[in-house]
Design a protein that fits this description.
By secondary structure, the chain is α/β, with parallel strands linked by helices. The protein contains 13 helices and 17 strands. The strands form 4 sheets. Strands 3-2-1-4-15-16-17 form a 7-stranded mixed sheet.
Length: about 400
Amino acid sequence: MKTRTLVLAAICCASLCTAHAQTKDRIVIRATRLLDGKHPVQMRMQIVVEGSKIVSVGPIKDPPTYDLTGYTVMPGWIDTHVHVGAHFGPNGKATLGGPATPFSTLASAANLWATLQGGFTTVQSLGASTDKDLREAVAAGQIPGPRVLTSIRQITETTGGGDLDKLRAAVDQAADEGADVIKLFATKSIRDGGAQSMTNEQVAAVCGEATKRGLRSVVHAHAPGGAKAAVMGGCTSVEHGIFLDDETLQLMADKGVYFDPNFLVLHNYLELKPKFLGTGNYTEEGFAYMEKALPLDDQVIRKARAHHVKIVFGTDAVAGAHGRNAEEFIYRVKDGGDNPLDAIASATSVAAEALRMSDKIGMLAPGMEADIVAVNGDPLADITAVRQVKFVMKGGHVFKNER
């Protein structure tokens, strides 16, 4: 395992050098099908890139630098909920946190590389202190990967003993350390039943302080009580939401709160059960809760769409899921009944809006970052085409070209 991780890291570095060498001049990308992130499919289009930016999108007229005829071209995908440091340790068991080690650092770099190769050019990691160094390393071009946003830490009902002023101080500390977002737990884990764990006042204190500091706040909330507290407390996004009812979803829609249901994470846990079992609350009882939650995921995304809640794309990617993030599209469409175009928008323009980055990413339009992914086939006709990522550009640099 160590050797494999080292090899992956070496490949990352080599690919990074190649990417920079490939993209110094004006680039023309030809596409059979183009999904710009907001609108219906456009046929026979070209994208012109100069430096790190898109300068034009329009009908084909120039000789292509990259001829993606036969492919579907989209903005680079955005995963709003990952854990980039989660990995399987040398003993094959899941590692859920702790200080950085040489092994965990290499594993994290490999996770980033796999995620980028899977078509994701931006991720939000929620959140470990080690994420900050990874964010800076990617931004500096020291390792290749999607751009990383991070909460650096997580806030629960036990933070500061639950005292409201100390909870606010925890938000301030995260902000001072450079957090992009605040992550809090308003309910217990699904493996512990998902009941509300923070009081309404605690949730309001954390989200209110985040707003005061100009930060977004995303809330782990399975139960309606925790989600309602998040909405009324001014939080910006609710994660998971397995047990959300119609009243809560309508409240979220009315207040413009984003919703991030997650399918891949439960499937990943259940498929790789032996690697997680026996660590923390990964017990037989916990796995039974997750098994029961699968059909509830299918129901809640349908209800959220019916209430016109703004749905973003997040996988809660942990060990074993990195690089497989696109499976979330397939679960949402095949099990959750989502429209493929809506699912893709959730990972592009809607996700960018939720991250307050819609002026930079999430759309194929002039002035936007040249984050571009191409898949073999038509995901609107067959969503499994998202597994066939053949071309990845991030900020004008090509990191994958397997046509």
